[in-house]
Amino acid sequence: METRKHVEVCFTPGEYEYFKSEYEIVVVIDVLRATTAICAAFANGIQSIIPVSTLEEAIEYKSKGYLVGAERKGQIVEGFDFGNSPFSYMKEELKGQDVVLTTTNGTKALHVAREAETVVVGSFINLDALCKWLEKQDKNILCLCSGWQDKFNLEDTICAGAICEYLIATGNFISDEDSSIAAKYLYISAKDNYFGYLKSSSHRRRLKNLNLNEDIKYCLTPNQTDVIPVLRNGKLVKI
Ligand code: 3SL
């Protein structure tokens, strides 16, 4: 009998319905930039993040006095406290705070996955810590890429491929979906130079046009923190 667990990759939130019931753990990935910003926030002492998928919900929280980050198409939405840059979450005054966040794709993916047994947040900046934690869980794992408006993107897929590669190498996991095999091969071709590999990717170009190159470099620099954010009762907290 096969005792190894599965680690698989879903390329977009739109495809999640075809995977969902088979995995106890869902790792939501939005390398540029939502899940990186979330990990950076916890690494810098934020207490909790309430992810919401719509601007309407974000406005409601703002009216109740919450600090709210809102991003659409890479930019801060007017009227909100900050957007989705990891650097916005490194401010002293945010330490110990509960904040609300809505982004174009990342918070949508968190919303789509919210009913899974365990939902954790993945990025390059917490990759090693996350992989080591996942390895110990003995559960089936789905890496859910946030993509861009329900289209495939390279950066999330490469990060998902890195997770698959690590877990398969332990001997305790297998992948058999073609999406997972493709993600692993993309990771293998990108791993020596994420920045160069993603040079012409659509979201890197989009962010570069918004002068967000420093954000991109930060998001593509692996293992800057050990934090693993987990979704509990609609709130992200440190595991
Ligand atoms: O789509 C998202 O959730 C964002 O990460 C996009 S952006 O990097 O802020 O443009």
Task: Report on the architecture of this protein.
This protein has 239 residues and is α/β, with parallel strands linked by helices. The chain has one domain (5-229): putative 2-phosphosulfolactate phosphatase. The protein is 36% helix and 20% strand. The protein contains nine helices and eleven strands. The chain has helices spanning 34-43, 55-63, 106-112, 127-137, 154-169, 178-190, 194-197, 202-209, 213-219; strands spanning 5-10, 25-29, 48-51, 67-72, 75-76, 98-102, 118-122, 141-145, 173-174, 229-232, 235-238. The strands form three sheets. The protein has a five-stranded parallel β-sheet with strand order 7-2-8-1-9, with helices on both faces. Strands 3-6-4-5 form a four-stranded mixed β-sheet. Strands 10-11 form a two-stranded antiparallel ribbon. α4 (127-137) packs across α5 and α5 (154-169) crosses α6. The radius of gyration is 17 Å and the shape is globular. The chain starts with a strand and ends with a strand. The protein binds (2R)-3-sulfolactic acid. (2R)-3-sulfolactic acid binds next to loops.
Structural class determined from secondary elements? alpha/beta
CATH arch. level architecture: Alpha-Beta Complex
Distance between the termini: 32 Å
Number of strands: 11
Instruction: Report the biggest beta sheet as strand number plus sense, adding barrel if it closes.
Output: 5 strands, parallel
Q: What's the tally of helices?
A: 9
Kindly state the percentage of residues in helix.
25-40%
CATH class, anyone?
Alpha Beta
Strand proportion: 15-25%
Bound heterogens, unique: (2R)-3-sulfolactic acid
Could you state the CATH homologous superfamily?
ComB-like
Mean pLDDT across all residues, rounded? 96
* Assembly state of the chains shown: single chain
Series of H and E elements: EEHEHEEEHEHEHEHHHHEE
Nearest-angstrom radius of gyration?
Answer: 17 Å
Q: Strand order, main sheet: write it out.
A: 7-2-8-1-9
Shape: globular
Number of domains: 1
Uncertain segments of ≥5 residues (pLDDT<50)? none
CATH topology: putative 2-phosphosulfolactate phosphatase
